[in-house]
Amino acid sequence: MIENYRETYKTWVEEPTLGTTLKDALKEMATNDEEIYDAFYRDLEFGTAGLRGIMGPGTNRMNVVVIRRVTQGIANHLKRLFPAPAVAISYDSRRNSRLFAETTASVLAANGIHVWIFPQMIPVPALSFVTRHLSCQMGIMITASHNPKEYNGFKVYGPDGGQILSQEADVILGEINQVDYFDKTMQLSFEEAMNTTCKYIPEEDEATYLDAVMKLSTGEDLSELNLVYTPLNGAGLGPVSATLTRAGIGQFHVVPEQKNPDGDFPTCPRPNPELPEIYQLAMALADETAADLILATDPDSDRVGMAIPVETGTYRVLTGNEIAVLLLDYLINTKPLPPNPLIVRTIVSTPLVDYMVRLLRGEVKKTLIGFKYIGAILTQLEKEGEIERFVFGFEEGNGFLAGAYVRDKDAVGTALLLCQMAAHHKKQGISMDDALARIYQRHGIFREKVISFEFDGAKGVETMKAIMERFRGEQREDFLGKKATKVTDYLEGETHYLGSATTCDMSIGMKPTGLPKENIMEFVYGDQTSFVIRPSGTEPKLKIYLFARGEEIDMVENQLAELEAQVRGFIEKGEQHVERL
């Protein structure tokens, strides 16, 4: 927290090196104390997701001053650890992404660090790939993923191509805190940087990434497949179209209004492939072209969403869990599996895959929320010489990976596999809805839902903390009118087993989670319902993940609706919030 935010604001206004755009924006907020407070009450949080925030002037905003300070801290960190460090940089289509990428490269070059930067926007997985491929000590991606247009971000990757974990993030933060916003950053112009240690990444290295993606192919014939695709005005069009063209796709239609890069995202204010509303234009094009499938990638092209035809002129948007289940089922039935196959999922992703993998005599590893943990497991497998065991990793938020060539989710490779899966079912005369129904017939009906509550500004952070503490105080058998069988506090690192007469489980006691500690709570009930609650790591939201399982669809959906109502009631009681579904 910055104690005297007004003094900090004044320092920025009077700073002679501050650019005109930022200085004019500061002057506009001069009479708005609440806006000044929110822009300057703290430093923008740096963690395992790097930076992410609203663009604008201030210490709690994304701007070139903050980027320079953070990059200088990173440069100091790298120079302490490595005699000749190298960093790979990429960026997406958001406003200021290219500027922030060039600013990052310029500060690193001024510190004598070798920089590889893509000459054009490129997806996250390509950055993960080249970080490894070029033997860099770090990768940096300028993106705010699927956040609204007001946001941008700064994601940091380790030499393994995976997002850094909390221990390294804390060390880097210590270095950043030693850097003044205006006095201790080394700077060059980007033109000067390009004449020193900064170089563009050659086209052949991007091509090598696409070669690695093509190795995922199951060999399925795509010549009869009719696809509608939208990159949501992001960075996915080039790599996705190149991959599917190489795979021999029959018909490939791109939504015209969402084809070209545009950081304003004019037709999709929240460019998130999880959201049904972003598919309206794609559905209209799919209806016009009689498409078999709709795919959407987010602006940095690490997440992919899918909509399928359910009847003439009607398409249904699948959840990330449904996509994962369908894709895993396809991989299991079409690709040779290694002995003791390994699937990795987050604790908020569907447990249906646990039942599927059990029949394979394989293993499911569960991680905390965030693909960085899945990437860390892959890196550990590689060190242990067991990387061949890995088959599939996913998170419910539409993040998937079916190969070990990168350490983050990859919408490009997943798009290829989803098209091959769709072509496979089309040849068999089976709709993807029918394929999903067959999975439920074998393992039971599963339903999941995510709800969230948004809390903006500094007060919102405190409100979320208070709500989490209210849930943390409810580690008892009877909560929300139901009998809990176990309660896990991931911040404490313990699971509390409470026993259940319903499931004949008399286990009582505590057991360590074996996972890193984070501010997450999980409640499990004897009627096969459960929920997880946690503050989002990238947005000012509390997110709640609801789960239900049973044999009859009406019963399962009723149980899910009842659990949702109970959780909402507990949160809403006495709280001020703005809900965002």
Short account of what is shown:
This protein is of the alpha/beta class. The chain has three domains: 5-201, Alpha-D-Glucose-1,6-Bisphosphate, Chain A, domain 3 (3-Layer(aba) Sandwich); 209-443, Alpha-D-Glucose-1,6-Bisphosphate, subunit A, domain 3 (Alpha-D-Glucose-1,6-Bisphosphate, Chain A, domain 3); 446-579, TATA-Binding Protein (2-Layer Sandwich), CATH 3.30.310.
Percent of residues in helices comes to 25-40%
Cα-atom Rg, whole angstroms? 24 Å
Number of domains: 3
Gross CATH architecture of the largest domain: 3-Layer(aba) Sandwich
CATH topology of the largest domain: Alpha-D-Glucose-1,6-Bisphosphate, Chain A, domain 3
Content of β-strand: 15-25%
3D shape:
globular
The total strand number stands at: 24
Structure keywords:
Alpha-D-Glucose-1,6-Bisphosphate, Chain A, domain 3; TATA-Binding Protein; 581 residues; alpha/beta; 18 helices; disordered C terminus; 6-stranded mixed beta sheet; 3 domains; 24 strands; 9-stranded antiparallel beta sheet
Description:
With 581 residues, the protein is an alpha/beta fold. The chain has three domains: 5-201, Alpha-D-Glucose-1,6-Bisphosphate, subunit A, domain 3 (Alpha-D-Glucose-1,6-Bisphosphate, Chain A, domain 3, 3-Layer(aba) Sandwich), CATH 3.40.120.10; 209-443, Alpha-D-Glucose-1,6-Bisphosphate, subunit A, domain 3 (Alpha-D-Glucose-1,6-Bisphosphate, Chain A, domain 3, 3-Layer(aba) Sandwich); 446-579, TATA-Binding Protein. The chain has 18 helices and 24 strands. The strands form four sheets. Strands 16, 17, 18, 19, 20, 21, 22, 23 and 24 form a nine-stranded antiparallel sheet that branches. The longest helix is centred in the last third of the chain and has 20 residues, at 553-572. The radius of gyration is 24 Å and the shape is globular. The two termini are 30 Å apart. Residues 501-506 and 576-581 have low confidence and may be disordered.
